[in-house]
Records
---
Amino acid sequence: MLENIKERILKIAEKAENDGLIRHGSGNFSMRDEETGYICITPTGQDREDSDIDSILVIDIDGNIVENKKGLKPTSETLMHLSAYRNREDVKAVCHTHAIYSTIFAVQNKEIPPVVFESMMFGGIVPVAKYGTPGTTELADSIIEPLKKSDACLLEKHGVLTVGNAIEEAYIKMQYVEDMAKIYLYSLLLGQKEPERIPQSEFDKVLNR
Ligand SMILES: [Zn+2]
């Protein structure tokens, strides 16, 4: 069931691996089917090379397994994905990775401010969700507040999460966050001080054009 969505998730997971945003099966991806409300989600602890369309599981909003062709386990971060869907009706897809530059700021518990125009993609800043042990409801709950102000958040000491209206859109945001983290890090190093933020009035000008 939902083969089309599974195919799209698999494609994005492969792309993320090729783009260097995930390695050795880290990171996880999911997308919600509008009609059934079911969620297709990547399995835990499986290398991307060993994954095919049948590796993607189908679960419901309570985490019950609806379809599991290969007898795998859904990602250990399933609770976090479900939390994004439960708390944001508009969210149709979730990406989570340990992308290096974003994770540097997650380790430092430092949000990424709007220093380039791409940050309009998420709502200005990339906030940090307070630390929660991976795989727990503590982590799942930690993303609720940050996701109220942004479509992207860092997970303290852990990684980064983005949401979108489709898996492809959520993944583009992931790429942008990683690029922004890189730009911000080098700006901090080169300038040896906080770079100036782009004011909201400038964003408004661009948005209204
Ligand atoms: Zn993780």
---
Amino acid sequence: MKPLLELTSHGLYCELGDFFIDPWRPVNKALITHAHSDHARWGCTSYLCHEHTVPLLQLRLGNHPYQGIAWGKSIFINSIEITFFPAGHIIGSSQIRVRYKDDTWVVSGDYKTKNDGISGSFEPISCNHFITESTFGLPIYQWEEQEQVYSSIRHWVKEAHEKQVTPVLFTYSLGKAQRVIEALAPLNIPIYAHGAIANTQEILIQQQHSLQPVIRIHNGLKPIDFSKGVVIAPPSADQTNWLKKLGPSQRAICSGWMQVRGNQRRRNVDKGFVLSDHADWNGLLSAIEATGAQHILATHGFTHVLTKYLNERGYQAETLSTLFGQDEEEQTNIETS
Ligand SMILES: [Zn+2]
Ligand SMILES: [Zn+2]
């Protein structure tokens, strides 16, 4: 019997249901795990995603026929049962369960097992075949408690104010930015945002997500204003004229890659905070175990290390060669071994 999901030139395909999951080329029917650019691409005839993902796709891909669905509600496409479950990665991010008779596949998309209070809480879903990401699939990746990281960020902002320079935090606009902005709220200072982050934040607030408002950076603002608040910008804004206009600053980047010391030096920032929207090594292992699946297919990042580890422990694990792993955080992968 053919597997329920197979890799084709357009992406992960279910022939019986005639649909794709996170296809990388335009197709008829696309099921989308989340709104990051390596998973949600332009040009498909129809899209099915979690209801919180719809406005984000609208913002990033423009007008297409999007259909939103709630977590835990099943629908059938050509007798294949489809259900979305929270993946805890970013707002709307979902694992997709595909079920036919007694064969159950779960496509994790990107996920993190720790609840960030914004993205929904990751749920382990039992299945026979689990397609897992492995962006941080090396044992060196062990995240500190997020509250600890948030408190270090707040401390660093206060230090900047004492030095009378503007604290600038580089975060990815969808996911990390929302977490960092919430973490800064207790400081009660103005939070200034680069346009890319302000756009995302405004759309999410319009959609009734209870998130902190930000002040969009515009020409009427002066260095003196920024130095009493904090600036959030995407990493691409570093070393640009846009950044210079903010006046004297100290700069930090928030990313899982900051766990490897050399990466902070290579990015030439003053500080690196280890904060990720992906599961760490133990998070990946616990998520895999909790599914009960024997057959594990790994995508993104260090798949060879993860699959070797799993095979030695009795799983049937293999790499699934996809084109995922190019979203903003994943791209920052600089050599780590
Ligand atoms: Zn992602
Ligand atoms: Zn990804």
